[in-house]
Amino acid sequence: MKRRIKPAEFAMQTLFLICGLTAIAFVLLITVYLILAGLPAIREIGLTSFLFGRTWASTHATDPRFGILPMILASVYGAAGAIVLGVPVGFFTALFLAKAAPPRLAGLIRPAVNLLAGIPSVVYGLVGMCVLVPALRAWLDLPAGDSLLASIIVLAVMILPSIISVSDAALAAVPREYEEASLALGATPVETYLRVTAPAARSGVAAAVVLGVGRAIGEAMAILMVAGNVANMPSLLSSVRFLTTGIAIEMNYAAPGSLQRQALFSIGLVLFLFIMLINILLNLALKRGKEG
What we know:
This protein has 292 residues and is mainly α. It contains twelve helices and two strands.
């Protein structure tokens, strides 16, 4: 006999369906808008010249150039550096909180992590500009401390709350029976955490990394204050410009309908596709890991 659905249950199912379809609709709307706004400039400039050109001179009076390769590489290097620094620190902090920390200490650290997540990005940029940049300039004897290195350090700190919080929840959700079986076979607690708990929470940790990558690539305000904002081919100790900061800097004075403004939308399209590609690759890698 078919179960009769109660009106309240039907209403909640309908509400959840509407929410899900709304989220999908917003993603599709953003995708279509970016494609329509970004393709005209790519057609006019040329895909190869736009993606692989090394000179960005959008305001040049006679010979404007719209090559975004330096910004693409700066974004990639900055996000990769932040992940290399931030993921190990965030993961081991989460592992400590979930499995090894005394309850009182964990009760102090978790609110501090949540507080880090709530700090506006402009505050991170301000601290980086006033503290980190002068320190790098003095320690490394640089003419200017605003550089790719400063951007990587700021981004690494900014992605820590997301990685710690999500990884902590994933690690805490691993059934205790897995760890007890490992300990019963003679493994030490550290071996159990690294070889049993961490692999069991792999999907949650991967989600944390995806969130960290998304924030590292999509951050603009903090990077605007510490990167130097010069569209050079990236070097660790030189000023650089990220894709996000390129949009933020020029959108205010780009004339509506101009090729410069259209090129900025094209940068947004490249950034959007880049983040989608990273998400797809990470999800594929995760599925292959589960099948293996």
